[in-house]
């Protein structure tokens, strides 16, 4: 009774296998795909015909075969067939990146939203407006997915809590789609730090850096977030909070935290804590975070003792949190992002002081710390990757024939 569904699942898996091979190794011939995937040639021929009909793959000329065989017809991915719309929501602005199926940027935009705390509807309205402007340029393109990255845990598609925004449980996807009634693609909400973790992990892997099975990612811009990767995939945990290193308590009697606990890492490593310790007077909502970071950066690079000491102490706190992650999740490495990557030279002495004992006593285990390479774009790169993966995992979501959403079909209320 379940055979039709099983058959469809197998076909989707095989389409994914073929499409991913062409994306990674194209232009390539059908014989090469069969040899690499283990599929019989007749199956590859039928699967390729399906992908061609969906305009995900096309012929890309021919290559002369060795010996007397006929020239091999080559296949390549059609990147321009599908767009992913990635949106990163920050406290005061929204960043958008539209990318094709190869991950190359097609459009970018940055817009202010100025929504006061506790009003997700205003943020949703701002998101809908930037998405509508992007989609208006998508004539002839299939829209794969809108992926919205937000700070805070995401459980079952709902934002469970976004402390920087003063939100409780929020169905942000529904708020956005309600303002784009003619949108003909799914909207997915994800955690921003998880997206950055995913992108940095694969970006470092592409440079040849080897990773252990379990890796922690920690980044800071104003607050401190993180993610946990197992086997190159995000592990969200039971409540979407796995890897949220910013709320690991590193002191039993530390400062109170907005999460309801005290002594959390963010109370030592967040921008407000760092600027207070560095003698810059702290950081308050409404200030220009980029300008505050730039001033602290200038003082660090000029060698002012108080900022240098503040980063050294913050490194100790970060090292303590890393030890907790290493012990609880058996993480073998950490990647630093945001201003932690920029200020790694000043954080490193404190981190190393905390990790030295473990490295000495458990030298066979090890725990490496590396610096991310994508900077402020990491979250958007990760969100694009999620959208692309949804297509590669199930190419049948792309219609056959034309199937593109005309630009005029999407409007914002």
Number of domains: 3
Q: Largest beta sheet, briefly?
A: 5 strands, mixed
Strand-residue proportion: 15-25%
**From the alpha-carbon coordinates, what is the Rg to the nearest angstrom?**
24 Å
Structural class: alpha/beta
Kindly report the CATH topology of the largest domain: Nucleotidyltransferase, domain 5
Summarize the helix and strand pattern as letters: HEHHEEEEEHEEEHEHEEEHHHHEHHEH
Q: What share of residues is helical?
A: 40-55%
Task: Explain what the structure shows.
The structure is a single chain. With 413 residues, the chain is of the alpha/beta class. It has 3 domains: 3-77, Arc Repressor Mutant, subunit A; 81-194 and 378-409, 2-Layer Sandwich (Nucleotidyltransferase, domain 5), CATH 3.30.420; 208-372, ATPase, nucleotide binding domain (Nucleotidyltransferase, domain 5), CATH 3.30.420.40. The chain is 41% helix and 20% strand. The protein is built from 13 helices and 15 strands. The protein has helices at 3-25, 30-37, 41-53, 120-135, 172-177, 192-206, 266-269, 271-277, 289-301, 305-329, 339-342, 344-361, 378-393; strands at 28-29, 57-63, 72-77, 82-89, 93-100, 105-112, 142-150, 154-155, 158-159, 187-191, 214-220, 224-230, 233-234, 333-338, 368-371. The chain has a 5-stranded mixed β-sheet, with helices on both faces. A 5-stranded mixed β-sheet has the order 13-12-11-14-15, with helices on both faces. It is globular, with a radius of gyration of 24 Å. Mean pLDDT is 89; it is low at 405-413.
């Amino acid at each position: 009774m379940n055979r039709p569904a099983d058959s469809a699942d197998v076909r989707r898996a095989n389409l994914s296998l073929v499409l991913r091979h062409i994306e990674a190794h194209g232009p390539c011939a059908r014989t090469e795909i069969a040899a690499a995937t283990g599929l019989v040639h007749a199956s590859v021929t039928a699967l390729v015909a399906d992908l061609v009909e969906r305009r995900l793959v096309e012929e890309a000329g021919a290559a002369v075969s060795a010996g007397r065989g006929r020239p091999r017809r080559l296949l390549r991915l059609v990147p321009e067939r599908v767009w992913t719309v990635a949106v990163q929501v920050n406290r005061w602005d929204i960043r958008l990146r539209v990318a094709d199926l190869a991950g190359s940027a097609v459009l970018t935009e940055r817009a202010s939203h100025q929504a006061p705390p506790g009003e997700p509807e205003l943020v949703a309205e701002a998101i809908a407006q930037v998405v509508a402007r992007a989609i208006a340029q998508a004539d002839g393109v299939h829209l794969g997915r809108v992926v919205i990255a937000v700070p805070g845990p995401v459980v079952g598609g709902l934002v469970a809590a976004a402390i920087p925004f003063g939100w409780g449980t929020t169905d942000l996807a529904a708020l956005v789609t309600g303002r784009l009634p003619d949108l003909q693609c799914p909207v997915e909400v994800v955690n921003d730090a998880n997206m950055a973790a995913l992108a940095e992990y694969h970006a470092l892997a592409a440079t040849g850096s080897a990773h252990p099975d379990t890796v922690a990612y920690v980044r800071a811009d104003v607050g401190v977030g993180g993610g946990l990767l197992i086997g190159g995939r995000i592990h969200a945990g039971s409540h979407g909070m796995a890897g949220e290193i910013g709320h690991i308590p590193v002191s039993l009697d530390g400062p109170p935290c907005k999460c309801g606990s005290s002594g959390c890492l963010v109370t030592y490593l967040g921008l407000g804590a760092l600027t207070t310790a560095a003698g810059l007077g702290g950081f308050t909502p409404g200030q220009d975070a980029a300008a505050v970071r730039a001033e602290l950066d200038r003082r660090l690079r000029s060698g002012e003792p108080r900022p240098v000491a503040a980063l050294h102490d913050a490194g100790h706190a970060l090292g303590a949190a890393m030890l907790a992650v290493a012990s609880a999740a058996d993480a073998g490495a950490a990647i630093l992002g945001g201003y932690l990557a920029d200020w790694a030279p000043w954080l490193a002495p404190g981190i190393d002081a905390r990790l030295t004992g473990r490295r000495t006593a458990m030298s066979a285990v090890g725990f490496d710390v590396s610096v991310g390479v994508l900077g402020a774009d990491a979250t958007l790169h990760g969100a694009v990757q999620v959208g692309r993966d949804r297509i590669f995992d199930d190419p049948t979501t792309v219609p056959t024939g034309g199937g593109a959403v005309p630009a005029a079909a999407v409007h914002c209320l």
